[in-house]
Design brief:
Helix content is 75%, strand content 0%.
Length: 248
């Protein structure tokens, strides 16, 4: 039961980060046009990127093609393409780090935690204090149920930005799974101080309450999430938990 609750919050794939355009590639405006097209006509953008690359479009065309592959759900094809780009030493370190991070998120979407973690580690070698990349590697480690490693990455991230409610909830989830219940509860309460009525925090607190036998408390937290943001991902999880647990 514990792992089921934790994974529900922790392993949300980062499609948006995997498909984020990079301004550094835009030299003529064609890249931005192609990148925008990936969101409305991914197959057309991919075809355009291939033709552009064949005509000498270089890294700009290749990156647009990778973004299109992500939008098409072809994550295991996008990730190696992003990796090839990230290894180009002629690109700036910050851009290479972004590409490694996108590769990692593509591997997360492909459910390949090992390759995702390796890509995030490569990114962190270039930008060691990037909060979001640390959080992304924590997600990859959580996918492998390496709760200690996930907690360590999130603690590093929170050392850089201690008021990130989302990271507090993720660390609470890692601590919850690792049996550190007092520390997990403290993270949740801190998250709710930073961001009152934060859906993910309420979902996780509900899970903890349910495990403690407080079915009414869990029910109240999960129903509050559904009431506050009925179309949110957190509400979908809350509804699932209400259904699965019979908390009524």
């Amino acid at each position: 039961m514990k792992a089921w609750f934790v994974l529900g919050l922790f392993l949300v794939a980062q499609a948006a980060r995997a498909a984020q355009p990079a301004a550094e590639f835009d030299t003529s405006g064609r890249y931005q046009q192609c990148a925008a097209m990936t969101k409305t006509d991914a197959q057309g953008a991919y075809n355009q990127a291939l033709a552009w690359h064949s005509a000498g479009g270089g890294a700009s065309a290749e990156h647009c093609g990778a973004l299109a592959l992500v939008q098409l759900g072809r994550y295991s094809e996008a990730a190696p393409q992003l990796d090839r780009l990230a290894q180009r030493l002629d690109l700036k370190a910050a851009l290479r780090a972004q590409l490694y991070d996108q590769e990692g998120n593509a591997w997360l979407l492909a459910q390949d935690a090992e390759r995702a973690a390796a890509a995030f580690t490569n990114a962190l070698a270039l930008v060691p204090q990037d909060v979001d990349t640390l959080a992304d590697r924590a997600r990859a480690r959580a996918m492998r149920k390496d709760w200690t490693g996930a907690e360590r990455d999130l603690s590093s991230a929170l050392g850089l930005d201690g008021n990130r409610a989302d990271l507090l909830v993720l660390r609470a989830s890692a601590r919850h799974a690792g049996g550190k219940l007092a520390e997990a509860r403290a993270d949740i309460e801190r998250a709710l101080q930073v961001y009152p009525d934060y859906g993910d925090a309420l979902v996780e607190r509900g899970a903890m309450r349910f495990e403690d036998g407080d079915v009414k408390g869990a029910d109240a937290d999960w129903r509050m999430v559904v009431k506050l943001a009925p179309r949110s991902r957190a509400a979908a999880l809350a509804n699932e938990y209400l259904s699965q647990t019979g908390a009524q």
